[in-house]
Amino acid sequence: MSAAMEPRIQYAKTGDGVDIAFATAGDGPPLLVVPNGPFSHVQATWETYAHVYPPLAERFHLVWYDSRGSGLSDREAIDFSMDAMVRDAEAVVEGAELTGLAMVAYYDAVPIAVTYAAIHPEKVSCLVLADGWMKGSDWDHDSGVVLRALRGGDWTVYSETYARLRLGFDNQEFAAQFAAYVRECVEPQAVLSAYSSQGIDAWDVSALLPRVTAHTLVVHNRKNRLLPVQAGQRLAARIPDARFQVVDDRGYEKLPGIIAGFLGESDEISKPISERIPSGTAIILFTDIADSTALTERLGDASFRAKARDLDGSLRAVIRENGGTAIEGKLLGDGVLAVFTSARQAIEAALACGRSGDDASLPLHLGLHAGDVIREADNVYGGAVNIASRISGLSAPGEVLVSETVRSLARTSAGVSFEDRGEQALKGVGEAVRVWAVREGGA
């Protein structure tokens, strides 16, 4: 590592008088990395994440900082309320003279970045959010319970457990290095203050997500034991036009390339949805919750609607991940309509949607057809849409049925097999349509 690439550490003062340490390295477009709650240390971060920060500094004017109460910032100021976190970010953006910046955030930094981007949309052009969450209930699972139980106990046991839950057991050397990094970042008492009802536990950015106007990529690790993939899906689903990507990269070795690729794209990602809906021939996916009336009676209307809303967000995230466009303007009750330009991606999305429905205990009917569509504003119309809906209605819960047209387009590329269900008469359709059930795995 050359001396020219060593970070320059400076200080900014917040509106409430707290000294915040920030570091800069590299030239190019501005890229601000938001600290992961109390776990930040500008010098140690550069060294511990040598596979992330120096490569980013080779492409960007990289800026990162320590939140109050941690790292080289004022450790006596242990206010981890969201207001305090935003003041820290505001001080650094002003002190580093950043404009039109991209922001990167991971884990507990994600709600901070979302809040800042929603409050200051004129300052943030792009967001990359990795392994994020939007409210405390996203942590209500076994691993989160384990970490809460260990806080306030032996500091080494807590940091070692956190490192291995976060990074897994594949790279013990890096996990041990990361645990030592955690202990260098912050004092145990500050962690207790951070994860309290006055701090991170009170954060909830769900209402702010629709206000984010920055081009956004949400990245989530497939095997994340602290935050399941569904947390990332819900996050992406609520940010307008956000893109979602599942990765296997718990040490973030691939993150610099993902960031550079996303930020280096053309303005295609900024196009409104009406410009991304294909005209002419499209592959149409129709999903619908199976037996929703009975589920409403069993769960109660409020509970069913809450589960259905969460599933809707997950489905739309899956559709985006697989290159499709969910139609926002369609009023489908308990269903989602989406269009694709690739039959292979449409089938992959349908199978993933089916798994999401099963995971939510809201199994889906799923149907695919290909044909001409009429685009009007943010909706699509036409006979092909009606056929996709009718095919969906024929499927068993969790099953994906496709028309002969879709099978013909995808049979050599989709990596699935097809089971013939014969000619089917569809309501409102003059001619019978041959239908096939999708089976995962080649023939």
Commentary on this structure:
Helices cover 38% and strands 23% of the residues. It is an alpha/beta fold and 443 residues long. It has two domains: 268 residues, Rossmann fold (3-Layer(aba) Sandwich); 168 residues, Nucleotide cyclase, GGDEF domain (Alpha-Beta Plaits). The strands form two sheets. The protein has an eight-stranded mixed sheet, with helices on both faces. Strands 9, 10, 11, 12, 13, 14, 15 and 16 form an eight-stranded mixed sheet that branches. The longest helix is centred in the last third of the chain and has 21 residues. The radius of gyration is 24 Å and the shape is elongated. It starts with 7 loop residues before the first strand and ends with a strand.
What keyword list fits this structure?
Rossmann fold, 8-stranded mixed sheet, single chain, 2 domains, 443 residues, Alpha-Beta Plaits, alpha/beta
Strand elements, count: 16
Write down the CATH topology of the largest domain.
Rossmann fold
Beta-strand portion reads 15-25%
The helix-and-strand class reads alpha/beta
Biggest β-sheet description: 8 strands, mixed
CATH homologous superfamily annotation of the largest domain:
Alpha/Beta hydrolase fold, catalytic domain
- Give the integer mean of the pLDDT values: 85
Q: Walk across the major sheet and give the strand order.
A: 1-2-4-3-5-6-7-8
The separation of the N and C termini measures 51 Å
Shape: elongated
What is the level 1 CATH name of the largest domain?
A: Alpha Beta
Please work out how many helical segments DSSP would assign.
Answer: 16
Question: What is the CATH architecture term of the largest domain?
Answer: 3-Layer(aba) Sandwich
Total number of domains? 2
Helical content class: 25-40%
Name the poorly predicted regions.
266-277
Rounded to an integer in angstroms, the radius of gyration calculated over CA atoms is: 24 Å
